[in-house]
Amino acid sequence: MLILYFSRSGNTRSLAKHIHRRVGGDIIELETVAPYPPDYDAVVEQARQEQRRNARPEIRTSIPHPETYDTVFIGYPNWWGTMPMPLFTLLETQPLGRKTVIPFCTHEGSGFGHSRQDLQRLCPEARMLEGLAVRGSQVEDARADVDAWLRKLGLLSA
Ligand SMILES: Cc1cc2nc3c(=O)[nH]c(=O)nc-3n(C[C@H](O)[C@H](O)[C@H](O)COP(=O)(O)O)c2cc1C
To answer: In angstroms, what is the span from residue 43 Cα to ligand 1's centroid?
Structure first.
């Protein structure tokens, strides 16, 4: 199992680490060559431009030995209704093929937006399982919900 995630301000990272503690496997944070600005207004504007241009920001992360995984969790913040564009870069560079994909996202009101459809388009052969969307500001309080979701997926025994 692999948990692959992108996070700028830490909410998705915290959720990814919790999932990792529960299900094990490997965990990889997707990093860009140019870091996103810490200033909120600046990143909101940059992300809007990247989406408008359908950009593929350069990334410094790749998945080592992707053939060793049959299940990949993919976590990200909702940015303007979908995944941050660096995930598009990664999934086009390293297509996941027939793996099982489990999306999770953090957001501030729009849930997954249209990210799951975009993800399925990027991974047309993947089997997509039910994902989980958590409010970024409530990640720390959502542990029980996360565990219930993992149990439902059959990935948590107790
Ligand atoms: C560039 C940008 C765009 C965002 N767009 C949305 C959005 O369209 N809908 C939404 O509910 N939240 C939106 N958010 C809020 C984030 O999804 C939320 O704060 C998330 O938990 C951040 O995750 P992170 O801490 O892992 O980076 C946006 C945040 C940023 C920085």
So the answer is: 10
pLDDT in tens, 2-61: 999 999 999 999 999 999 999 999 999 999 999 999 999 999 999 999 999 999 999 999
**Is residue 133 lining ligand 1, measured as CB closer than 6 Å?**
no
Question: Which CATH number does the domain housing residue 108 bear?
Answer: 3.40.50.360
Compute the chain's Rg from CA coordinates. 15
First and final CA of the chain: distance in angstroms? Answer: 18
Residue owning the nearest CA to atom 18 of ligand 1? 107
- Strand ranges (DSSP E) for 15-122? 26-29, 71-77, 100-107
Tokens of 90: 């990664």
How many A from CA of 89 to the centre of ligand 1?
A: 19
Report the alpha-carbon distance of residue 22 to residue 108 in Å, rounded. 24
| Domain presence at residue 158 | no
